[in-house]
Design brief:
It is a single chain. The protein has 13 helices and eight strands. By secondary structure, it is of the alpha+beta class. The strands form three sheets. It has a four-stranded antiparallel sheet with strand order 4-3-6-5. A two-stranded antiparallel sheet has the order 1-2. A two-stranded antiparallel ribbon has the order 7-8. A hairpin with a 2-residue loop joins strand 5 and strand 6.
Length: 374
């Protein structure tokens, strides 16, 4: 490299990007298209005088301070400053900066990228693309997303206090206490007599005593009215004391858990349990006990959960406020005239007395033997 840039050393890459952006101005008008801008001259440091101080302990030089922001390019009425180049450079990961070359090359590429963006914006405005319907809709969508992101970012930066975390933990203490979950299997029948007959078979049948697991599975498949669990041999999975399970939408009456909690693993209840109009024969097939989780163990999880809740609350409050200010004409009942079929196609609902819309005729299916088709 020749010229003023030959003195640039990789050791100086730690210098302020603002100073590097200033160097871009000296690259010439042909590279960045701003020949009318003055190029700052490099100031050579004065040579130190030969004094006794040279033999003393060297004093570390002060850290370089960034220079003033200058205009490095102008497109129409829009300008690109060294501060913009510096800010964008700082947002690029270090490994990508290394691939982009030296500091001068990075500053030049960033500047050219910003110039290209402004040129595209000026061209779009000149062609009045912002007045086109699809572009206007995209612009409005970006406005809405930017507003919500800004509000939500401010909300997420609001610290969740330790007092809020402790209050949430105490209010939901039952979810963090030690609890036992029991794995329950069932056979469902319609009458008490049928249930007692099955229990008698379980207690006295030699075949059942020889292989209880296989015999239970056969009884569940052939006798249980609940065909969903019968295909799983009556397995209901692990159940908590309140009847809830690992599946959020699957829960059972607490009486089921209470009945199997009185017996040991592998045992069957002595009496059938009536749930609404059905009679259940229940078996306990195992259990697990979770330890109590302390506040310190759950603090990080609760903090993240409360932070997300704050973001949702702030976003919802903003929409409610804007709704009261700007929503003036709202007729949700009118969407009832729209039908969506199974394939996702939209079609207006046919109103009474309306003529049925004619659909385009389907092309006729090809005729002839397979050998004549091409």
């Amino acid at each position: 490299m020749t010229g003023p840039m030959a003195k640039f050393s990789p050791r100086r890459r730690a210098a302020s990007w603002g100073a590097l952006a200033l160097l871009v101005c000296s690259l010439g008008a042909s590279a960045l298209a701003f020949a009318d801008l003055p190029s700052p001259k490099r100031v050579q440091p004065p040579k130190p005088a030969a004094t006794v101080a040279q033999t003393a302990t060297p004093v570390p030089a002060p850290a370089p301070t960034p220079g003033p922001s200058v205009v490095v390019a102008r497109v129409g009425e829009q300008t690109i400053t060294s501060d913009q180049v510096e800010k964008l450079a700082k947002s690029i990961p270090p490994y990508q900066l290394k691939r982009m070359g030296t500091a001068e090359e990075v500053a030049r590429k960033i500047t050219e990228s910003l110039v290209a963006q402004l040129l595209a914006e000026q061209g779009a405005m000149a062609d009045e693309l912002h007045e086109r319907l699809d572009v206007a809709q995209r612009i409005r969508s970006i406005y809405g997303s930017a507003l919500l992101q800004d509000v939500q970012q401010n909300a997420s930066e609001a610290a969740v206090t330790d007092a809020e975390i402790e209050a949430f933990y105490e209010a939901n203490r039952e979810h963090y206490r030690s609890e036992e979950r029991i794995r329950v299997w069932q056979i469902v029948v319609a009458t008490e007599a049928e249930a007692k007959a099955i229990l008698k078979t379980i207690k006295t049948d030699a075949k059942y005593a020889e292989d209880p697991v296989k015999a239970w599975d056969e009884l569940a498949r052939t006798k249980s009215l609940d065909k969903g669990t019968a295909m799983r041999k009556g397995d209901l999975g692990f159940m908590r004391p309140d009847g809830s399970t690992a599946h959020r939408d699957v829960a059972f009456p607490a009486e089921v858990y209470a009945a199997v909690a009185k017996i040991q693993d592998g045992e069957v209840v002595a009496e059938p349990v009536k749930i609404q109009n059905d009679w259940l024969i229940l078996q306990r097939r195992g259990s697990v006990k979770t330890p109590e989780r302390s506040l310190e163990q759950e603090k990080a999880t609760i903090r993240g959960m409360l932070a997300k809740k704050k973001v949702r609350d702030v976003g919802g409050a903003l929409i409610t406020e804007l709704r009261g200010k700007h929503l003036t004409d709202h007729h949700p009942q009118r969407v009832d005239i729209i039908q969506i079929d199974g394939e996702g196609d939209l079609a207006p609902m046919e109103r009474p007395g309306a003529l049925q819309a004619k659909r385009p005729a389907q092309p006729a299916a090809p005729k002839g033997t397979p050998g004549n088709l091409r």
